[in-house]
Amino acid sequence: MRKSIEEDDNLREALRYSAAMLGELRTSLLSPQKYYELYMMVFDQLVNLEAFFSEERNKGRSFSELYELVQHAGNVLPRLYLMVAVGCLYIRSKEAKAKEILKDLVELCKGVQHPTRGLFLRSYLCQRSKGLLPDTGSPYEGNGGGDIHDAVDFLLSNFIEMNKLWVRMQHQGNARDKEKREQERQQLQDLVGKNLTYLSQLDGLDYELYAGMVLPRVIEQVVSCKDGIAQQYLMQCIIQGFPDAFHLGTLDVLLGALPELQPEVKVHAIMSSLMDRLAKYAESDAAVMQRLLEMKAFEKFRDSIGRVLNAQTDMAAADKVEMFVALMNFTGSVLPNIVDNVNQVLAAAHAALATGLSGDIKAEKQLVALLTIPLTKYDVVTGLGLTEYPILMGLLRHRTHKELASKIIHAIVDSGTRIHSVEKVAMLFRFISPLIKDVEGGPRVDDMDDEDIEEEQVLVARLIHSLFHEDPAIHHAILSLAKSELMHGGARRVRHTLPALGFCALQIVRRISSASKASPSLRSNAECEAGFGAASPDINAETTETDAEAVNIEVKAVDAEAEADVTAAAANASELTAGALLQWLLELCNVLAEVPREPMMALRMLLAAGLAASEEARVELLAYQFFEEAFTLYEEGISDQRNRVTALHSIIGTLNRCYIFGSENRDALAQNAAAYSSRLLKRSDQCHSVCECSHLSWQDDSTEVPGVAVRDSARVMSCLKRALKIANSAKQQVTVAARAGDCSYITLYIEILEHYLFYFDRSVENFTASVLQPVIDMVQSEVMLSLTKAGESEAQRLWSKTLEYIHQLKVKATGDKVVRYSALQLPSFQQGSKASL
């Protein structure tokens, strides 16, 4: 053919060879992919042939003659290809009207009914005629050549015929090759969609023409073809190909077609695409957003989803949820201020999934995505107002439900959000119920690892600090509700969460106390002290019994208990005092004390509360009760000796910071501390604790209430003398055991000397140089003796440092201290030197 064109310039031979070349397209042996490669090779040669036809016209041969000449080709397929090639040139030359030639060609192409050959033939027609349509503003418009309606009619006619051929491919061949045919069809789908693309690009296509002519015919063809692959692709072509403004006006038509689609069509993907396009369109123009609101677009999408679900009763759960995900994204982007829409989506999703997820992992992931959207689109506080949220969460597997609950808590904690409503806190605990108690279908707390429980409950404990209200009474009501909910979790959970509740309650005590100091009109300390005993039962009437049951993991809780607890707290809101709150905290500490492995945490809470009762609330009787409970817990609940030593030191240290106690109460507490110190197992521990007890009789001045510090030098001296006796007993034990190298008792002497020095430096009565000097000499002699027996030890190095420190005090002394320190005779010292000792 090329030789006939380039060398011989022979039209007849060129037509003969071109027909033979085009005859190769008649094959049925090639796959669509290979046929496409052959088609592209032929297409390239047809370009050369069209150029040859143009040269023939320049030689005087008309296109009408050529148009008739090519119709003599023997086979229909080559004939139609040649007619399309010459026909397009015919239109371009304006020798013929575009309307007539295009109509003639689109009708003649019906002569090829083989699906693959017909699709490529009509694709060639569509492609070559693209710039020749009588579109508005086109040079081929008017003068009998047609108008925009003719252009639209041509493309629609070609589209309809191509779609029929495309669908027919599905029904050819053996049933076992169905999957292969579907793959081949998907490879050819762009040939069909090209018509719709050219339609959307017509300059003369306006909304009226689209709504009145284009869309009805396209939708009719899509629905009537009853083919899932075609419907899926063509609906996406409509949504993605035509302008958003057209979709806005024809929304009812598009949504009305969805229930009529085949069951295998992924309607959720179609709706998602449509909603995403409209949402982006609305974001770019406020007027569009207003129009969507006026036309009730959300309601239309919601109702359409309902109709689709009714029509496709066998739709997979994942596909159902994905439609609601799209709807949730749509309402969050277009109508963010209407939170009720979110609740409606969740309610509709729950109704659609009434039968459950049936173990569908994909559906569960989609449901998590749906439930996550409100947390990202809105703040968490707004999300807590969604009554349908926890109901829908109940459809998740326990593990997934727990992961989503953790996400909710992280969203609150990481953003610093404060939950300040009792109702929303109650809703929050419904959201995170798998984390705080055993739920149906999930593992029991007894079957969980300690590490897993700790990780979850530490997160819940962090959440408790986000439950806050400026009004102390409401804050207390929130904590009361939290306590009632947490007690359902059993001992292994509350051991991590109750401390957070306790320290939050202490914050309220400090706020109430600060307000009392700032406003004399508030209740006096005496009123608080008199009122705490009567107020507490009403605040948490049922909690004590419930707490005890929870500790023994025999809780039979119902939601009514939590409601009663909060109601009681709210009823006493106007009467809340620091004393009443501390009484509530005391009950909380008693519950925690009964939890296995948590006596030390309960002790710390009791001491912190006792300090707050003393220095913040100024309620002596209640402060005494906290310390009394602390001693009881020390005696009955702590058995490990190391913990007992730590606990006793904590009690003594906290008691030393309390200034509220009168002499009687303070003496009782100090005597208890001293008695327990003397009963410790190790002599060294006894000595340390007794030395610390000496500070219970000598306090620094209070910054809050001057003049109330305890100053009893006789008792201080008595404690230190008792410590010396204990150190002597420790020395005797070493001597009896014949442990020559053991100098540990010397460190006890040095520690006692340091306490003597502490009081000496503060000019405490009876602590004079004559009292301190014998102690220094005794330690020096013991150190020298140990040096001769065992050589240099840690005790000797400690003594060198102590002597150096005393020497520095002596050098820096001013005023009366100069005289006091000058009376001390110190041994020579050089740290680390044997000779210095």
Low-confidence stretches: 521-566, 568-574, 830-837
Assembly classification: single chain
Which percent band covers the strand fraction? Answer: under 5%
Mean pLDDT, nearest integer?
86
GO cellular component, one term: late endosome
Subcellular location: Membrane
Function: Plays a role in vesicular protein sorting.
Keywords: Membrane, Protein transport, Transport
List keywords for this structure.
single chain; 837 residues; mainly alpha; 41 helices; 0% strand; disordered C terminus
Structure description:
With about 850 residues, this protein is mostly helical. It has a domain at about 745-820. The chain is about 70% helix and about 0% strand. The protein has 41 helices and no strands. Helix 5 packs parallel to helix 7 (about 115-130), helix 8 runs antiparallel to helix 9 and helix 9 (about 180-200) runs parallel beside helix 11. The radius of gyration is 46 Å and the shape is elongated. Plays a role in vesicular protein sorting. InterPro entries: Vps35, Vps35_C. Pfam families: Vps35.
